[in-house]
Design goal:
- The chain is of the alpha/beta class and about 210 residues long.
- The chain has helices at about 45-50, 75-80, 95-105, 110-120, 135-150, 165-180, and strands at about 5-15, 15-30, 30-35, 60-65, 70, 80, 155-160, 185-190, 200-205.
- The chain has one domain: P-loop containing nucleotide triphosphate hydrolases (Rossmann fold, 3-Layer(aba) Sandwich), CATH 3.40.50.
- It has 6 helices and 9 strands.
- It starts with a strand and ends with a strand.
Length: about 210
């Protein structure tokens, strides 16, 4: 397959406490991975590890794009990540944050794509306002635009419906379906109804 993400025997521990162990899976282009488990089971920790924001205590991760292995240095180029605890730059506007999403990856601004994404998340009228003036729901919408700006092959969503109203939830479902068709979608959630038909499941309650 053109895109494949796999893990082998991932384990994470903090201060001698094992959060989870023996997490192994393979997810491919056109598929959704659903990560479930009760509070404290390690869903957010696993999402961070898959995003390379954290390192596992043991085990391996492998991402292949078009038959080429992605090294850790370039992992961020292929990953989009959305979570309630991920903070954007509140002194910057939504448009400036999207430009930064590309700048951090050494890419030039793409005003047309930024405009299209802000329209998709219904923030065009507020594109020039600093994020500190946004509601929590508007900030969550901005996070989706930020995560998608560089067209990631893998989109990782941790509790993606947080702080969203019915319109925002519908927007997220459309984003999730598009990502599943075009790449790999990973969703960590307490609510399994967030994902209708995942091809791959990891239940951390069993780890």
């Amino acid at each position: 397959m053109p895109i494949q993400l796999s893990t082998t025997s991932l384990m994470k521990s903090f201060q001698r406490r094992t959060i989870f162990r023996d997490v192994s899976f393979v997810v491919e282009e056109g598929q959704t991975l659903l990560i479930t488990g009760k509070n404290g089971s390690g869903k957010s920790t696993l999402a961070k590890i898959l995003s390379r924001l954290l390192s596992p205590t043991s085990g391996t991760l492998d991402l292949t794009v078009n038959s080429s292995h992605v090294d850790e240095l370039h992992w961020n180029d292929q990953i989009g990540f959305v979570s309630p605890y991920l903070q954007l730059y509140e002194e910057f506007s939504a448009a400036e944050n999207l430009a930064l999403a590309l700048s951090l990856r050494g890419r030039p601004p793409e005003p047309q794509r930024a405009g299209d994404l802000l329209t998709m998340v219904s923030l065009t009228p507020r594109a020039g306002d600093p994020l500190r003036a946004f509601s929590s729901g508007m900030k969550q919408r901005t996070k989706f635009a930020f995560a998608l700006m560089h067209k990631p092959k893998v989109l990782i969503l941790d509790e993606p419906m947080t702080n969203l109203d019915a319109e925002g939830i519908a927007m997220v479902r459309e984003i999730m379906e598009r990502q599943r068709r075009e790449g790999i979608l990973i969703v960590a959630t307490n609510d399994e109804s967030d994902v209708a038909t995942p091809e791959v499941r990891v239940n951390l309650d069993a780890r």
